[in-house]
Design a protein that fits this description.
Helix content: 10-25%
Distance between the termini: 78 Å
Low-confidence stretches: none
CATH topology: Ubiquitin-like (UB roll)
Strand order of the largest sheet: 2-1-3
Shape: elongated
Mean pLDDT: 79
Structural class: alpha+beta
CATH class: Alpha Beta
Largest sheet: 3 strands, antiparallel
Number of strands: 3
Length: about 120
């Protein structure tokens, strides 16, 4: 009896480093961030993580985990170690300059006028 996988996803990938669908026991799996695109032209949205031995297997795991129930156009996987971010102590760079509060929706106080107009014309 052959140990070859019957799963077409495994057979289609033809991965040299994965023999008969089994990863060597002394290898470490990598954490990948998964991004999902619902339709072509829309932005990709972060949906979660998967742990896998390679990017190819990570895509398979991501497909099974995040694309089974949703409409999916594409998936991206990125090694978590390759994602860069600002340090926590640099959070002040995202604060809004006080003299530019007009850019915030809360700056405009028109809700009471809208309600008065609705009441008057209803």
């Amino acid at each position: 009896m052959s140990n070859e996988s019957l799963d077409p996803r495994i057979r289609r990938l033809d991965l040299e480093h994965v023999k008969n669908g089994v990863q060597p026991t002394n290898s470490h799996w990598i954490t990948f961030e998964v991004f999902h695109q619902e339709k072509r032209g829309r932005q990709a949205i972060h949906v979660g993580i998967v742990h896998a031995p390679s990017p190819e297997i990570a895509l398979m795991f991501a497909k099974e985990q995040y694309a089974r129930r949703k409409s999916t156009s594409n998936l991206w996987v990125v090694k978590s170690s390759e994602v860069f971010t600002f340090a926590s102590e640099d959070e002040d760079i995202f604060e809004t300059t006080p003299d530019k509060t007009f850019r915030e929706p809360g700056f405009y106080k028109v809700r009471d006028r809208i309600e008065a107009y609705k009441n008057k014309h209803s």
